Amino acid sequence: MSVFLGIDVGTTSTKCLAADERGRPLALTQRGYTLQHPKGGWAEQDPDELWESACAAVRDCVTELSQQRLSAKDVRGVSVSAQGDTLILYDEEGESLRPAISWMDTRAGRECEELLALRPQQFWYDQTGQLLTPLSSACKVRWLRKNDPDVLKRGRVGFVSDYIGGRLTQIFATDISSASWTSLYNPFSRYWSLEVLDLLGIREDQLPAIATDAYIGAQAPPSGAGRFRAISRGGGCYLEP
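Given the sequence above, the corresponding structure tokens read:
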């Protein structure tokens, strides 16, 4: 039997669903994690905790599959969905550099006002299809540039789905629907907005590649299967029971 896994990395927990080739559910597991509020309006998460939770949820799911005489070797595909505009800075190897700034974080109110003083709302709508708010990634990037510039300069600027998928496959890419959550993507050119990136002072190569899910899966190296079966990073998670 072929098994397919869906991993959903949400705001407060990760869920993993196993289904057969006809879409019938075989197992469902869930692992929670913390959402921290160090200051008023701030909401942060530990990216490593998100990764470890994803590993644990998958491992639990594979354990449940073993009770049906199935194993990780029967898994033919894995998909990842995630909470929206949560911003993560990570290095070339996918190791996180600072706490993730949650999609619900409103610390960047002043930065939002500053960006709107530089470019009106019509600019943001024309470039990203969205109106700019303190929740927008562009405002959080500007906040990082002012408050954590060294990390921003040397890190990748990413989001939960490309962070989790990248640590699994070593391909740091995002799909169009996930990129559309951000205030950095131009839905009309179907690429990152170069005007917005220039305004924020970040480079194209700091952002994940934009590709279809099929491309990401097709380009994943063979080592990705090995990493799925025995992940030694992220707290020593092992997916095979």
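Residues 3-229 form a domain with the Nucleotidyltransferase; domain 5 fold (CATH 3.30.420.40). Try to locate this feature in the token string yourself.
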